[in-house]
Amino acid sequence: MWIRENSEGAAEPRDNERGKTMRKRTLAAALALLLLTSCGGGGAGTARWKHTEAPPGAEPVPCADAVIMDGVRVDVWESGGKKYVARADAEAAAGGELQGDVLSAGGTEYMPCPEFAGANGFPVLTDPEDGTVYISPSAKEFEIPERVRVPVLMYHALEDEAWGFDTLFVRPSEFEEQLVCLLENGFDPIWFSDLSHVGDFDRPVILTFDDGYDNNCTVLLPILQKYNVKATVFLITGLVGKPRYLTAEQVRALSDSGLVSVQSHTVHHPELTELDREELEREFSDSRLQIARLTGRIPIAVSYPSGENSAYVRRTAGEYYRFGVKVNGLIWNTGSDPLRVKRLIVPRGLSISTFARVMDEIGAG
Predict the structure, then answer these.
(1) Distance between CA atoms of residues 344 and 349, nearest Å
(2) How many Cα atoms are found within 13 Å in the side-chain-facing hemisphere of 124?
(3) CA distance 50 to 31
(4) Kind of pairing, strands 187-189 and 169-170?
(5) If you average pLDDT over every residue of the chain, what do you get?
(6) Cα separation of 328 and 112, whole Å?
(7) CB 234 within 8 A of CB 245
(8) Strands 203-211, 231-235: parallel, antiparallel or unpaired by DSSP?
């Protein structure tokens, strides 16, 4: 049978207001961006961004600063003490047209950096050690359509021979059979970032793998590539490079594959409810930065270690992540608190008939 756990910690009487607060914040951000990009006296859709020409002798020149946009390094330019990126480079990395102030020089358009990221709603993370600026268009704030059932399946390692807690080691053949079952029954494996357009999928499902075992690269990735489907790996960053865990190179390979989204499982996998404020913030912030360094992408989701969380833990997590993932054997519905995403554990040895029956019941709900 499916394993069901419930260890979310103490609830607060008004904790169900969290989802409403998140939706209000998202709507406010969208309205702010709309107002920012609308010209008060112009026609609809007219931008009020400044477009200026660089004066003679003030043309932007290359500088050594680093800007990484969703894993792509973008050259940085400097003029008059300000930093810029070439608009064409930034739009290529973002995969679309960008809004913002523009400086023209020698037939090239430049956008001030990192200001252009804010103009487009992209999160920005600056490395305090070397000043590298990470900008993630894929992590842009978005409103989630409501009342969509999204099963989130929880795996760990794919191994024929279990070397730890048996239940966590699903056989590769079992997982592949389950994946084929999902695809044949119309399920679409997606990422958390795809929830922005979840209505485009008939039967969305999110496949998650906790901890960051090396077989996520050597076994899981080839299966994903075979069927061209997506999965999410929640990485314990403090274990990168340790025996049986992913190396930094493997983490980057997963992220660059276009099929794996690397998200946070904290730095040390502690019991979050037992940490003080400083320790809790460090687990969230350091993991976020380390994943950005490894992948060039800012993570938007965290898996609470052992599923342990509380209202206080979730509030703190919300300062760094959009989604918080727990464990309790239920189905998550969009519109509910994104920091309390429910998952179903898929254990080793689960029969394909049971898997198919449960997923069919989920899809029919």
Answers:
(1) 15
(2) 16
(3) 21
(4) unpaired
(5) 88
(6) 45
(7) no
(8) parallel
Backbone angles phi, psi at 121, to 5 degrees: 75, 20
The pLDDT tens digits for 220-243 are 999 999 999 999 999 999 999 999
Give the relative orientation of helices 352-364 and 172-184 as an angle to the nearest 10 degrees. Answer: 30
Domain architecture of the chain: domains with CATH: 17-28+141-364 (3.20.20.370), 48-139 (no CATH)
Residue 298 near residue 333 (C-beta atoms within 8 A): no
- CA dihedral (155, 158, 163, 164) in degrees, to 10, reads 0
- CA pair distance 75, 64, nearest whole angstrom: 8
- Between CA 340 and CA 333 the distance in angstroms is 10
What average pLDDT does this structure show over 326-341? 89
Residue type, 180: V
DSSP states along 48-105: ---EEEPPTT---EEEEEEEEETTEEEEEEEETTEEEEEHHHHHHHHTS---S-EEEE
Split at pLDDT 50, 70, 90, the class of 33 is very low
Cα separation, 334 vs 198, in Å, equals: 9
Q: Model-level pTM greater than 0.90? A: no
Q: Are 208 and 232 in contact (CB under 8 A)?
A: yes
Which residues fall within 8 angstroms of residue 244, CB to CB, at 6 or more apart?
163, 213, 214
pLDDT score at 47: 53
Q: Whose structure tokens read 């191994």?
A: 159
Residue 300: CB atoms within 10 A of its CB come to 25
